[in-house]
Design brief:
single chain; mainly alpha; 5 helices; 0% strand
């Protein structure tokens, strides 16, 4: 067995196909984060306007009024928009911030479940994809 036959964990991490997939997925995650954040801004504005679209379901342990949720979602959406633009420009800070904002989005969408359960589950899944893509891609 020659030295070229041995593969290490570092070789696996640096494999061009894996890095290409992670890099492409990271750019797609930036676009996805932008779209989800834009929708969150619109969702927050709709909640603040007390739109009839939101209906509170049964009583949940984690209960906030619609105005509070509107502000939370609106602020997270605006921050997510800024981070996604930073990710598209390749800023290093944006990668770290994307993981943080996606984690906060997971928590807020978990708490948003009483209003829109299927939407919340979808956004949580998309946030997991964003976190995976950003943490897997090695820029060196």
């Amino acid at each position: 067995m020659t030295s070229t036959d041995r593969r290490t964990a570092a070789d696996y991490e640096q494999h061009p196909v894996r890095q290409g997939l992670a890099g492409g997925t990271t750019f797609a995650a930036a676009i996805l984060l932008f779209v989800v954040s834009l929708l969150a801004v619109l969702q927050g504005i709709s909640a603040l306007a007390k739109d009839d679209i939101f209906i509170a379901g049964p009583e949940y342990t984690y209960k906030f009024d619609l105005t509070t949720w509107g502000w939370i979602v609106l602020i997270l959406g605006i921050i997510g928009l800024a981070i996604s633009v930073g990710m598209m420009t390749g800023a290093t800070w944006a990668r770290f911030a994307a993981v943080v904002i996606a984690g906060l989005s997971i928590v807020s969408n978990f708490l948003w479940l009483p209003y829109y359960p299927w939407w919340s589950i979808l956004v949580i899944a998309l946030d997991v994809v964003v976190i995976w893509a950003v943490t897997t891609w090695r820029t060196d």
